[in-house]
Amino acid sequence: xxxxxxxxxxxxxxxxxxxxxxxxxxxxxxxxxxxxxxxxxxxxxxxxxxxxxxxxxxxxxxxxxxxxxxxxxxxxxxxxxxxxxxxxxxxxxxxxxxxxxxxxxxxxxxxxxxxxxxxxxxxxxxxxxxxxxxxxxxxxxxxxxxxxxxxxxxxxxxxxxxxxxxxxxxxxxxxxxxxxxxxxxxxxxxxxxxxxxxxxxxxxxxxxxxxxxxxxxxxxxxxxxxxxxxxxxxxxxxxxxxxxxxxxxxxxxxxxxxxxxxxxxxxxxxxxxxxxxxxxxxxxxxxxxxxxxxxxxxxxxxxxxxxxxxxxxxxxxxxxxxxxxxxxxxxxxxxxxxxxxxxxxxxxxxxxxxxxxxxxxxxxxxxxxxxxxxxxxxxxxxxxxxxxxxxxxxxxxxxxxxxxxxxxxxxxxxxxxxxxxxxxxxxxxxxxxxxxxxxxxxxxxxxxxxxxxxxxxxxxxxxxxxxxxxxxxxxxxxxxxxxxxxxxxxxxxxxxxxxxxxxxxxxxxxxxxxxxxxxxxxxxxxxxxxxxxxxxxxxxxxxxxxxxxxxxxxxxxxxxxxxxxxxxxxxxxxxxxxxxxxxxxxxxxxxxxxxxxxxxxxxxxxxxxxxxxxxxxxxxxxxxxxxxxxxxxxxxxxxxxxxxxxxxxxxxxxxxxxxxxxxxxxxxxxxxxxxxxxxxxxxxxxxxxxxxxxxxxxxxxxxxxxxxxxxxxxxxxxxxxxxxxxxxxxxxxxxxxxxxxxxxxxxxxxxxx
Amino acid sequence: xxxxxxxxxxxxxxxxxxxxxxxxxxxxxxxxxxxxxxxxxxxxxxxxxxxxxxxxxxxxxxxxxxxxxxxxxxxxxxxxxxxxxxxxxxxxxxxxxxxxxxxxxxxxxxxxxxxxxxxxxxxxxxxxxxxxxxxxxxxxxxxxxxxxxxxxxxxxxxxxxxxxxxxxxxxxxxxxxxxxxxxxxxxxxxxxxxxxxxxxxxxxxxxxxxxxxxxxxxxxxxxxxxxxxxxxxxxxxxxxxxxxxxxxxxxxxxxx
Lengths: 753, 256
Prior knowledge:
Oligomer: heterodimer
Number of helices of chain A: 26
Largest interface: A-B, 31 and 33 residues
Distance between the termini of chain A: 33 Å
Radius of gyration of chain B: 20 Å
C-alpha cells in the first residue's frame, strides 16, 4: 500500500486544483442569496407561547406595534397638529398598516346635554389660544388618549402603527421613512417598538460585524506575517480559512436554507478555528527547516505530514463533535449553523491534510528562521521559561489555576439570564431613548394580550374583565390595560349622567350592552373595536401595556397577568412577543447547557477511544470545562447577561478548547517516545508545538480585538468573550496541562512507564 | 360622402354628443327617481365578515316628508338583544342631519351627532351617504363614456369630491357610477380609495315601479374589496305612504 505522504506527493496538482474548484462552485450560489432578518419566522412552531401569539395575531392582527414619538414644546401647536393630521392620513392610506392610532384616529366618547358624541380627539385644528386650552382640557379627560397618545405635559405625541398581515419589518420601515420624508417637520422623531429593535439588532449589528471582520482578518494576517516572518505562514493558513468559510456558507443555499443573523457566526467560527491546522503545519515546517538545513521542501513536507496528520485529524474530529452539539438547539438557524460549521471544519481538516501539504510540496523552501536555529526569539524564551516553571513547580500552577477557578466559579451565582434585547444597543442609541420615553411618559413598550372566549356581551364576563383591569392598573409598571370592557364603561359615562347608578359602569343586562354597542356602531367606525372584539362578539382581547427594565420585572408582570386571570372560565390564552421572548430565551439557554454537556461527553468519549485511555478523556476535556466555568463565572462578575447570543459562544470555546491540548499531548507523546525525560520533553513540546499553539491563539485574539470598535454592546461582549475563551484555553494548554502531566505521568503519553 | 369623411365627422361630433349630456343632471335624476315622499318598509340588513360570519339586523322604517325636512323613523325588530331600539333622523337639505336614538334597556332617548358621511350605517359596509341623497354640490361630475351593464346601455359617470374635506368626510377619492341611459337607474357604483384603487362596490337593484314615476330599490349590496366584508340590504315589505302624523316623528314618540 502506498504511504499517505507518497499519495499526497504523487497527486499534488490534483489536490491543489480540485479544492479550489469545489470552493468556487460552493461560493457561486452565495452571490444570489440575501440575508433574511426575520428571526421570528424560525421560532419553533410547537412552542405554546409561539402558538398563542400566532392564534391571537390571526384573530386580532399584529399585537406588536411600531411606535413613533414626536417631540416638541407643545404638540397642540397648529404646525405640529397639521403635520400629525397629514401623517395620520398618509399612514391610514398606506396598505402596509392595518391600524393607525394617533391623536387623529383616537376617539373621544363623551356625553353632552344628553347627547353621545363620538369624534376623533381632534376635529378642527384650534385656531386661538382659548381653543387650544379647551382642547387640552378635553384631552386630559379622555382616558383613551391622555398618556396613551399624548404625554402628560403635552410635549410628546405618538403614532402607533400595526403592520398588516404579511408585511415585513423592512417594508413597513421603508414606508414609514417615505411618509416621514414627505411630511417633514421640526419635531424630533424617535422610533420604537419590536420591529425597529429587530431591525437595529439584525441589520446594524450584522453590518458592523461584517465590516469589522475583514479588518480583523487583515490584522490577523499582519500578525501571522510578523510571527512567521515568511509569506507561506500567512498565505497557507488563511487560504484554508477562506476556503472553509466559502464552503460552510455555500452550504446554506445548496440546502435551500436562508442566511440569517445567526449565520454570521459561521465565518467567525471558521476564523477562530480553521486556521489552527495550517498554523501548526507552518510552525512544524519552520522547526524542521531550522534543524535540517539540507532537507528539500518535499522531504520536510513529508515529515510534517507524517507527524501532524494524526493530531490534526483528532483535533478536527473533536471540534466537529463539539460543534454538532448545536443540532439539538431549539432554533432552526442555530441547528443549520451547527451542521454548516461542522461541514466547514471537516473541509478545513481535509484541505489541511491534502491541499495544504500538496501546495507546500510545489513551493520553494523558505529561509531558515534564525531565532529558531539559535533559540533566541522572545516567544521561544517566554515558552521556555513557562516550560521550566510549570514542570518545576507543578503544585504552584495547580494552586493558581485552582484558586482562579474557585474565584471565577463564584461569579456563576451572579450570572443572570436576560431576554431584553434592548440592552444590546448602546445607551445613547435613539432606539433606547425611544424606549425610555415610552416607558416613562406613556404606557410602556411591552405588550401582552389575554384572550377571552364566550359570550362577550355577557355583563358578568365584562365586569370580571373590568375588575382585572382595575387590579392590574394598580401595578405601577403597568401603563394601560384596554379591552372592550373599558370602552363600554366609557360609553356608560356618555349615556348616563354623573350620579346615575349606570354611570361609569358596565350595565347589568346583556340587552343594555348590546344596545350601547349598537349605538356606538351608528356613529363610530365599525373598525374601532376590531382589535378589542371579534365580529360576532365571541372573542375579546385584553391588551396590557407595561414597562419592564429587567428580566425579573418582566417575569413578575407576566406572572401577575397569568395569575389574576387564571381562574376565569372564559380566559383561554395569553400571548405577546414578550412572553415568547421570555420562554424562548429560557429554553435556548437551557438547550445550550444540554448541547454543552452533550458535546463534552462526546469529546471525552472520542479521546478515550483514540488514546485508549480514560485519563486522556478526562485530561482532554478538563481545559474545556475549565474555560466554560471561567467564562460563565467572569460573565457573572462583570454583569454580562447570559442571552441567546452569548450562550452560543460556548460552542466556539468547545471548538478551540480541546485542540490546543490535543496538539500538546501528541507532541509530548512523540518526544517521550524518543526517550527524553518528562521535563525535557515538556520543554521541547512547549518551544515547538507550543509556539504554533501560541501563534494560533494570539492571532485569533488580536483579530477579534477589532470588534471592540463597534458601538454595539453585544459585539463588544462577543469579542471580549471570544478573546477570553481563547486566552483561558491557551493558558490551560501551555501551563496547566504540562504541570498536570508531570504530576500524573499518564500512561497514554508514556506507554512504557 | 365616403366612409373616411364619415368617420372624421363622427370623430369631431362624438365628444360633443357625450359632453351634451350633463353628468350632474343625470346623477340628480338617478337620485330623484328613488326619492319617495312617504312610505313604510320592513327591511333586513345582513353583514358578513371575510370568513362568512353573519350578523343580521331587521328593522321597520317609516319615512315622510314634512316641508323641507325628510323625517325617518326606524325600529329594530331583531335580533332580540337590540329589539325595540329606535332611530329618528331629520334629513335636512342644507345642513347636517339630526339623529336620535332610543335604547329600551336604558329607557332613554339620546341624540347622537355625526357629520361624517363616510361613517358606517349600523356597522355595515353601507355608509350613511349610501343610505341618503348626497349633496350634489359636493362633487364634480364627468361622463367617462358608455358601458354595458347586464346588456343595458349605461353612462359611466365619475364624481370627484370638490375638496379634501369632502373627500375625508365621505372616505373616498372618487366614485364611478353606471346609470341606465334610458331609465336613469343607478345600477352600480365603484368607490376608489386615496391610492386610487377600487375599495368598495355598491350594487343596486332590482328597481320596482312605485307610482308617480318613482321607483323603489328592492336590494342593495356593498362589498368592501379591502377587508372582504360584505353587507346586503333587502326590502321585505313595502307600503305606499304613511298614516303617521308629524308628532310620531318626534324624539318623545321613539319611546313608544
